[in-house]
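Why does residue order matter? Because the sequence determines the fold. Keep that principle in mind as you read this record.
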Amino acid sequence: MSDRSFEDAQKIFFEYYDKLPLFKELTPDEFNVLRSKNEPNIRGRIVGVLSKGIEVTTPDTERRIRHVLSANEILDELKKIVNKRLTLSNVYFHLQKLEDTGLVRIVDSLPSGRRFTAYYGRTARVFMLEDDMTMPITETILDSPGNHYFLEKLPEFISLISGESLDTAKQVVHQAMDANSHFITSEKKYTKQYEAWTSRYEDQIRQTDLDLIKNYFLYIKLIDYQRQVSESFHKLKELMQFPDIDEWA
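Structure:
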């Protein structure tokens, strides 16, 4: 527990996520904690909410995504995506299960009146199981909350690793998005290769706060397309320095 102000704690929350491991491989038992036989899968959606985070404005007016949230904040986000009546007790119950399994942890507890409010964060940015990746909430690149932030950060990342100007990177991303507005996941999940790619560009990923889940959808789409379908896809793939599929054969 801490007596620091929320403004001071928020800096720690940002630092916590900045230093978070990119990947964590789960055992089958740990993975099963994320699954539920009944819909909606609240635990899976909680880690999804923590992955997406909420957009906040810092005291110096910088716009950032905070991925360390209180149970109340998590409940507010769940209510936007779950068509079921949820209570704070429900959220605390599932948070405890996730904490016991090592999938989330309490980053800090701050005074709130006579009590303390716990703030929770994931223990890795992406959870993986063997050759598969857990994605609690299936979403497309363009049609889900927070994508404007991803599409804003993507050109910054491309500019860093390719040496192209930011304007050129923005133009390539815009053209690729226009070429195919409905990005969907592929049946092929090259997660080990994706993990190797993220390791290569880890510094740039952290510098630009690139969303690894949304980027994974883009990754699968770009490595498994036919060039004649979209020349703009080919240009974006080159700038992202994604390998060709036959390089993994």
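Residues 38 and 107 are 29 Å apart (CA to CA).
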